[in-house]
Specification:
Blueprint: H1 22-69, E1 79-86, H2 88-91, H3 102-111, E2 118-125, H4 131-137, H5 141-148, E3 152-156, H6 159-168, H7 175-199, E4 204-208, H8 222-239, E5 245-248, H9 271-287, H10 290-300
Helix pairs in contact: 3-9, 4-7, 7-8
Keywords: Signal
Organism: Sutcliffiella rhizosphaerae
Protein name: SGNH hydrolase-type esterase domain-containing protein
């Protein structure tokens, strides 16, 4: 419950002279010299010809290279696709600004990068979704296509799984009940991540952790903080099975806040709460050196 990469040119000339009369010998030598001169002239002509052809070919290659170096603007795709998948935190419920909660903070971060021209967002957040709901939604071709085309994926889930235990056992809550559901949650979360990786096996995944929405008004119920901590540790243990994934802790944001961070429903974060969650996500992105990774990706292309 707690552990969670040569040319060598060789030329040989043999001159043979046959002994004859002096006149014939002289005549013979003259003819051979003339013949040799003519042969040399022909050879030189051939050499000049091929040199000229080589120069033309080389010039064509150089021209071709120069033309290739003049890459037209827009040759590389400099757009970035962000996909947010999950529950009401992804949907941004409680953000009175209507900007979509922490998603706007993350989008602004990528839009500030010089190597990105356009940032697109696909928000697949649905209020009330639990892990079993995400598994069902992963059967939707549109959801699958969105995940497939994502450069980065952000997921929020688990809060409603936990709250299901609270709602169904409000009058008789025990650690045993949370522990039992926590194990089932781990199995379902594992299935969710497995399905996401089937559609996108390389993009980075950030999974936002859980927080205790009751802390602000029920600080005396310390057991609930322990339950949330245990569930976050379970999430980490599941993520450990999947490369290129990161956990974003947000639990401490809501411990003794200096100002109200919850919406009027006293359950969802308000605009300030979402901003702080977004900041934690950006810290995790920077910790993973995402900038270096993207620069290397563009250079390889």
């Amino acid at each position: 419950m707690k552990k969670w990469s040569v040319i060598g040119i060789l030329a040989i000339l043999i001159i043979s002279m046959v002994s004859c009369t002096s006149e014939n010998s002289s005549s013979y030598v003259s003819e051979r010299v003339k013949e040799r001169r003519e042969n040399q002239q022909e050879k030189q002509l051939l050499q000049d010809f091929f040199k000229r052809e080589d120069n033309i070919e080389n010039q064509q290659k150089i021209t071709s290279i120069e033309e290739k170096e003049e890459v037209p603007e827009g040759f590389f795709d400099r757009s970035f696709n962000l996909v947010f998948f999950g529950d009401s935190l992804t949907q941004g419920v409680g953000d009175e600004s209507g900007k979509g909660g922490f998603t706007s903070t993350v989008k602004d971060y990528y839009e500030d990068k010089s190597y990105i021209d356009n940032v697109t967002i696909t928000n697949l957040g649905v209020r009330g979704n639990r892990t079993n709901h995400l598994l069902k939604r992963l059967e939707d071709p549109e959801v699958q296509e969105a995940l497939k085309n994502a450069d980065v994926i952000f997921i929020t889930v688990g809060g409603n799984d936990l709250m299901k235990v609270v709602r169904e056992n409000f009058l008789d809550l025990t650690f045993t009940l949370f522990d039992k559901e926590q194990k089932l949650y781990a199995d379902r979360l594992d299935s969710v991540l497995g399905e996401v990786r089937m559609h996108n096996d390389s993009s980075r995944i950030y999974l936002v952790g859980l927080f205790n929405p009751f802390y602000q008004f029920f600080q005396e119920i310390e057991e609930m903080n322990e339950v949330v901590t245990n569930w976050n540790e379970t999430t980490l243990s599941v993520l450990d099975k999947y490369p290129n994934t990161a956990f974003v802790p947000i639990q401490n944001i809501f411990f003794d806040p200096e100002e109200n961070l919850l919406d009027d429903d006293q359950f969802h974060p308000n605009q300030k709460g979402y901003q702080l969650i977004g900041n934690n996500i950006l810290e995790e992105i920077n910790r993973f050196n995402e900038d270096s990774d993207v620069d290397e990706m563009l250079e390889e292309e």
